[in-house]
Design goal:
- By secondary structure, the chain is of the alpha+beta class.
- The chain contains eleven helices and 18 strands.
- The chain has three domains: 147 residues, no CATH class; 55 residues, Winged helix-like DNA-binding domain superfamily/Winged helix DNA-binding domain (Arc Repressor Mutant, subunit A, Orthogonal Bundle); 165 residues, no CATH class.
- The chain has a seven-stranded mixed beta sheet, covered by helices on one side. It has a seven-stranded mixed beta sheet with strand order 10-12-13-14-11-15-18.
- A hairpin with a 2-residue loop joins strand 13 and strand 14.
- It is globular and about 85 Å long.
- It starts with 5 loop residues before the first strand and ends with a strand.
- Pfam families: HTH_69 (PF22979).
Length: 440
């Protein structure tokens, strides 16, 4: 008996007013062409289209991988934009090891959405999926494709051509407040806003007056503007001397103002000290307790990946450790961009997650962090990378993270308690711990 060759079959699954779901699967069948079944020939031999049949794929187990992305559809007649979510759900053949499934889904996805030949319409998109399954990804048993329209409106600036992105943004109170919070604890002048935002002095002054009326900013001497704290702060020329029992053993450094607010919301017995200077960098330190620990928090006065921003981060840490000499652990806290897991939607980083860098198990060098400073194309067509790796003197924090991951912690009860007190809510809303460093 001759084995029947596998075919790639596309079948509609369901359709609503704003969504369409299709199933593309691999089957060993020999269907006959009809008014409802199209059997392709020529270059597309091996592809079958079920035109009208409503299909249930019969798969009861959860998909092995799921990826979702957005496209913006442009009407050829009106020029209007429609945002569409496209979800891909993968099921692989049993012989493919579970550990390899996410990587196969990633490879398929990267080839499908390659910018060089990304399909411009529905037909091209589905056709490319079927051709990839037919000629390359032989272990992919079934792929469910959901196309879901989610509203109208132009795409965000990241998706718009450079000519539009480079236009001067319209001034708003929120943009001015963002600049003040990013610079905090450094103060800004009207000229700083004019230079950075390309706005007029009159526009800046109107926005600053409105923010001050709302209690969000305040004017310092010499025309300087700074964020107004909701808690009492003490302006000092230098930090007061602290007795041994009040010295912090843990330091938390944040990049954004809202992140520092979230950490401070977890602290009891707070004292905030601000040292302002018109030359160099100002400093802010909030002291208090979290549980049984004495903690100090501070905020970087600048944000970014430039050499100047990284130097500022290093200076802030060095200055903090010089003032609070009993600090044993330094936590760098931030949202980290909220980068999702590339192949497994169930492993996306969520707000409130704690992420600890750990060494890759298959690499001999136990680095927990590798930063690429520069990448240059070489004569062989590849790339040369200039990187800075980091590994701690010991892996205590990584061991603690592993123990936490293997232990059922009562997080839910803490979150519920925090929500009632309006504390944890602020933390979850703003903060992800992305890197932890032990100071040796």
């Amino acid at each position: 008996m001759t084995d029947i060759e596998e075919k790639v079959i596309m079948t509609p699954k369901c359709k609503t007013a704003n969504s369409t779901t299709l199933v593309v699967e691999r089957k060993a069948v020999e269907p006959e062409a009809s008014d409802k079944i199209h059997v392709a020939g020529g270059d597309h031999t091996g592809i079958i289209i079920n035109k009208e049949k409503v299909y249930e794929n019969g798969v009861t187990e959860p998909c092995h991988a799921q990826l979702e992305f957005y496209v913006y559809l442009v009407s050829g007649t009106t020029g209007t934009h429609t945002r569409e979510a496209r979800a891909l759900r993968f099921w692989f053949k049993p012989q493919m090891p579970p550990s390899e499934r996410p990587y196969e889904a990633q490879a398929f996805f990267r080839e499908l959405v390659s910018p060089q030949d990304f399909p411009k319409d529905y037909v091209g998109f589905i056709k490319k999926i079927m051709k990839l399954m037919q000629h390359k990804y032989y272990q992919l048993k079934l792929l469910e494709v959901e196309l879901r329209q989610e509203g109208c409106g132009p795409p965000p600036p990241a998706y718009i051509e450079d000519s539009i992105v480079n236009q001067t943004p319209v001034i708003s109170e929120q943009r001015v407040l963002d600049m003040i919070e990013n610079a905090y604890p450094n103060a800004l002048t009207v000229e700083d806003f004019v230079s950075a935002g390309k706005w007029s002095k009159a526009e800046v002054k109107d926005a600053l007056e409105a923010l001050e009326e709302k209690g969000l900013t305040r004017t310092m001497s010499e025309g300087l503007y700074i964020r107004q704290h909701s808690i009492d702060t003490q302006v000092v020329k230098q930090m007061p001397t602290l007795c041994s029992s009040r010295q912090p053993s843990i330091a938390v450094i944040t990049a954004l103002y809202c992140e520092k607010q979230a950490v401070d919301a977890m602290m009891d017995n707070q004292e905030t000290y601000v040292r302002y200077t018109t030359v160099g960098e100002s400093n802010v330190y909030t002291l208090g307790t979290i549980g049984a620990h004495r903690v100090v928090t501070t905020k970087l006065p600048s944000v970014g990946r430039t050499r100047e921003a990284m130097t500022a981060a290093g200076n802030t840490t060095t200055r903090l450790l010089g003032i609070f000499q009993k600090v044993e652990y330094v936590f760098l806290v931030g949202v980290g961009g909220g980068v999702p897991h590339y192949t497994d939607y169930a492993k996306h980083v969520r707000l409130g997650d704690v992420v600890v860098s750990t060494p890759a198990p298959d690499l001999p060098d136990k680095y927990v962090y590798v930063f690429c400073e520069k990448a240059e194309k070489n004569s062989k067509g590849g790339w040369d990378y200039e990187v800075k790796p980091y590994k701690p003197a010991n892996f205590l924090l990584q061991e603690i993270a592993i123990r936490l991951a293997n232990t059922k912690a009562h997080w839910d009860s803490y979150v519920e308690e925090g929500n009632l007190n309006n504390i944890i809510y602020r933390l979850v809303d703003y903060i992800i711990i992305i890197s932890i460093r032990h100071n040796c």
